[in-house]
From TrEMBL:
It comes from Paracoccus shanxieyensis. The active site is at residues 171, 297. It catalyses: alpha-D-glucose = beta-D-glucose. One of its GO terms (molecular function) is aldose 1-epimerase activity. CDD domains: galactose_mutarotase_like. Belongs to the aldose epimerase family. This is Aldose 1-epimerase.
């Protein structure tokens, strides 16, 4: 089903596409290829944070549910060098870093709906050479499909005309119990290490063990026991390279539900929504406050163009970037 969702400041219309199958429904926007709403039959509340109209997505709700890129997360200094050439990028975060591909990154752009059916929808975007300072024209395709077993499968493909950094992430904030915050959620992440960061959230260098830190989620952790401590907004290292087949990276429990995140990516940005502030009403009619949801963003490691020792996010000419992330839902485990 397709319905109009609003109009951008330049007059372009944004559509919402709703797909349904296997006891699940997902509503998707042509703005940002955004997952605007996600529901399970028998569950009375949405499973993601979102808004009932377009306006908040342009301001306080930017990135909520969007596909962010062409480089998800941060690139320090808004520049990088490759083959002896320095590329200066759009510094859209405090005029010092490039965040999620710049001010006109894919999470802030209108995509084209390329195909849709009862259980799937495909979106397409085309980025010109030099867009936000990145070299190479790029085409990117995102395919959402509801699979048996209450699974939302997200496949992202991209190709470019020049060697360029390429890392996309699906940026939903999850809340499985419908409460005001995620205190009663339990999180487990299959990561032995994480990337320490400076005050600007730029990685400092080599991965460090999670053991003994507030980022140790190897065993299930009730988030309410961690939210009052240091900021949770870090890349957890779930692998040392991207994979062909998705592997379980994390699970989240609350409200009788379990969501398992499986991905082909070697990193998972865990962000507990510290900077969410009340504003426009959300999907349940009330504004979202701090810690209203948690983002679990499958990605290459942040700032990798400055760290050749990290898994490489450089996309060569003639190669295809491919990411598959699966959100699997079932009953909450008793463990």
């Amino acid at each position: 089903m397709i319905a109009s969702f609003g109009t951008l400041p330049d007059g372009r219309n944004v559509d919402r596409i709703t797909i349904r199958a296997h006891g699940m429904s997902a509503s998707l926007l042509t703005y940002g290829a955004t997952l605007q709403d996600l529901r399970l039959d028998g569950t009375p509340h949405p499973l993601v944070l979102g808004f009932p109209d377009l306006t908040p997505y342009l301001t306080e709700g930017r990135y909520f549910g969007a596909i962010v890129g062409r480089y998800a997360n941060r690139i320090a200094g808004g520049e990088y060098s490759c083959d002896g050439q320095t590329h200066r990028l759009d510094r859209n975060e405090a005029d010092r870093t490039t965040l999620h591909g710049g001010a006109d990154g894919t999470g802030m752009r209108k995509w084209t709906l390329a195909d849709h059916g009862a259980d799937h929808a495909t979106f397409f975007d085309s980025l010109p050479d030099g867009h936000m300072g990145f070299p190479g024209a790029m085409i990117v395709r995102v395919h959402y499909r509801i699979m048996p077993g209450a699974c939302l499968r997200i496949a992202i493909l991209a190709a470019a005309s020049e060697v360029t950094p390429c890392s996309f992430a699906q940026h939903s904030f999850f809340n499985l119990d419908g409460r005001a915050d995620i205190s009663d959620h339990r999180l487990s992440v299959a990561a032995q290490t994480y990337l320490p960061v400076d005050p600007a959230l730029i990685p400092l260098g080599a991965p460090a063990p999670v053991e003994g830190t507030h980022l140790d989620f190897r065993s299930p952790v009730r988030l309410g026991d961690r939210l009052a401590g240091p900021l949770i907004d870090h890349n957890l290292c779930t692998g040392d390279r991207d994979r062909l087949v998705p592997e379980d990276a994390a699970w989240l429990d609350a409200g009788g539900l379990r969501m398992t995140v499986a991905s082909t990516m070697p990193g998972l940005q865990v962000y507990a929504g510290d900077h969410i502030r009340p504003g426009a009403p959300g999907l349940q009619g009330l504004p979202y406050a701090r810690h209203a949801g948690i983002a679990l963003e499958s990605q290459f490691w942040p700032d990798s163009p400055h760290h050749p020792e990290y898994p490489s996010a450089m996309l060569p000419v003639g190669h295809i970037y491919r990411q598959i992330t699966c959100l699997n839902f079932g009953p909450q485990s008793g463990c």
